[in-house]
Specification:
By secondary structure, the chain is α+β, with helices and mostly antiparallel strands. It has 15 helices and 20 strands. The strands form 4 sheets. Strands 9-10-11-12-20-17-16-15 form an 8-stranded antiparallel beta sheet, with no helix packed on it. The two termini are about 15 Å apart.
């Protein structure tokens, strides 16, 4: 268990030190792998380097010492932003990935100025400032990206270099338009509500509040107050073991899931006691370090519970997972801060059910696991597996979820927590919603999986699982599978199953899921590496026949978790 400041520093260094052999001679190229993304190699190299700043900046700002890392960062900035250097990171286009990576460098200029900025020569400072200013001259997506420009302009302002006051205010006002209520932001024009609310928008807004508290006290206080309100709901996304809810995109950032709480500490926002916040952070990091997330060289891999390209997005480059280093923001806290001497406490006592309408979710906190029941609209950003990451009936910290290998056949589709229609051999599930409501004790959605089929689904959670009621209006006859949570089926899990006339249970060493209904019980095999937490898993399901006209399906899902 992580406890002292030294523990957290050593943890950070153990994560980043294995990348050292992969730097080029002049340090502006960090080549960590051969898989591709939608942007070019120069941006990939810059990304690999800049994401280390998320950990090293608080390391230095909080008094950490490493001459070797300081020289690496200094040389990388000098080479990468020099247009005459062979390792120059390149010029820009609209919505350039390099604008994303500027935020971490700006973070360094704001909080570790003596380490990141001051050692540069005058010419190197000119090059870096000119390079960063370019973020004001190109179009950015209207989402969390605009806050990268906010950080860059704050950094340029701090080191007394040209910045855009107009763009700074413009992007802050745009961020305000993302706000929904109860502390929740959506990720810009995408409408998505996921971890980007916490590890992006709130994180950057709290950084703004720290930097600008005296100069812009009203806005800074607003950001802090919203974070405090948000935390009271966001805590439902973590269970007692430190596991976070697998949901939405960018899961390969892993321990960034808890970085919001580190930013709260930095900004003197305490929605919970110091001991409870330390417990949330320390358990979460320790939980991740027990998983197979590193390769044989010690590098972080693309994936979630293990290396997995099937669930990756189009922007997951080999260096992308190091975004997770944002969790180490707490290393900026002074040595005498109570966080370092506090004993990690358990989560505060939480009522089981939490209705979070601004997050488009109903949450149920069981203690040793958490289930989320989404009922919100989402868009298809083209990054990959959006239906699996946002469209399921339920997501759980213990059971994980599946992405699909293809939509041909039930096994490759792996539709856990879905009502899956099989038509002409293909699998159709809940995608965009026509209607979606989160009520005090249930969710209701209306959706169309296939032309001529309309489904109304009502889900009611309770202390043992949840009940689903589907009213299906169909113009065709077909088969449908109402699928429960997938259960880990690796060799070490000792998975097994049992059936009755109207139910099927799959169980292993630490969990079970039972699905019951007036249909045929089945155990569905799935393609390996489709569950984000477990390399192999099985899905319990009830198969029903859908007739032309109106059909009503009632399915019960019961779960048990022992850990």
């Amino acid at each position: 268990m992580l406890h002292s400041k030294k523990d957290f520093r050593q943890c950070l260094l153990s994560i980043i030190d294995p990348v050292k052999p992969y730097f080029s001679e002049d340090k502006a190229v960090l080549d960590l792998g051969k898989t591709a993304v939608y942007y070019g190699k120069k941006a990939i190299y810059m990304e690999g380097i800049s994401r280390l700043f998320w950990g090293l900046v608080p390391f230095y700002a909080g008094g950490g010492e490493s001459q070797e890392w300081q020289q690496i960062l200094r040389k990388a900035l000098a080479s990468g932003t020099n247009p005459r250097h062979p390792e120059y990171w390149g010029d820009f286009t609209n919505s350039d990935q390099k604008f994303v990576e500027m935020a971490a460098i700006a973070y360094g200029m704001l909080f570790a100025t003596e380490t990141i900025w001051e050692p540069l020569t005058d010419q190197e400072k000119d090059n870096l400032a000119r390079y960063l200013y370019a973020i004001n001259e190109y179009k950015l997506p209207e989402c969390n990206w605009v806050l990268f420009a906010v950080l860059v302009n704050l950094a340029l302002k701090k080191v007394v270099r040209p910045y855009s006051k107009e763009q700074l205010e413009n992007y802050l006002n745009m961020t305000e338009s993302f706000y929904k209520g109860d502390g929740w932001y959506q990720d810009g024009d995408s409408g998505q509500v996921d971890y980007y609310t916490s590890f992006a928008i709130h994180f950057y807004c709290l950084i703004y509040a720290v930097v600008m508290e005296k100069e812009d006290p009203v806005r800074s206080q607003r950001f802090k107050e919203r974070a405090n309100v948000f935390a009271k709901q966001f805590i439902y996304w973590f269970d007692d073991t430190g596991e976070a809810l697998p949901y939405g995109r960018s899961l390969t950032y892993r321990f960034a899931q808890v970085s919001f709480f580190s930013a709260c500490l930095l900004a003197d926002v305490y929605p919970f006691t110091v001991e409870e916040m330390k417990g949330i952070i320390a358990r979460h990091i320790s939980n991740w370090l027990r998983k197979d997330i590193f390769d044989d060289s010690g590098l972080l891999t693309i994936g979630y519970g293990y290396p997995n390209l099937i669930m990756a997005e189009a922007y997951n480059a080999p260096g992308s997972p190091y975004w997770g280093l944002k969790v180490f923001a707490m290393l900026m806290l002074p040595d005498d801060h109570p966080f370092w001497s506090a004993e990690a406490a358990a989560l505060p006592k939480l009522p089981g059910l939490s209705s979070q309408p601004y997050a488009d979710k109903l949450m149920y906190h069981y203690g040793n696991h958490v289930t989320a029941f989404p009922a919100g609209h989402f868009t298809y950003p083209g990054h990959g597996q959006a239906v699996a990451k946002y469209g399921k009936f339920a997501y759980d910290t213990c059971f994980g979820f599946h992405v699909s290998k293809s939509n041909y056949g039930i096994y490759e589709a792996a539709p856990d927590s879905m009502l899956a229609f099989i038509i002409d051999g293909y699998c159709y599930v809940r995608r965009n919603l026509e209607e979606g409501q989160v009520e005090a004790d249930r969710t209701r959605t209306v959706w169309i999986p296939y032309p001529g089929i309309r489904v109304e689904t009502i889900i009611i959670p309770d202390e043992k699982g949840h009940t689903r009621k589907h009213i299906v209006h169909s113009e065709i006859q077909c088969e449908v599978f109402d699928c429960g949570f997938s259960v880990a089926g690796r060799d070490e899990d000792n998975v097994n199953s049992k059936e009755t006339d109207n139910s099927v249970t799959i169980y292993n060493n630490f969990s079970s899921c039972t699905v019951s209904g007036e249909g045929k019980p089945m155990v569905l095999g799935t393609s390996p590496n489709t569950n984000v937490l477990y390399r192999k898993a099985l899905i319990p399901a009830i198969r029903y026949t859908i007739n032309k006209g109106s059909n009503e399906i009632l399915t019960r899902v019961d779960v048990e978790v022992k850990r």
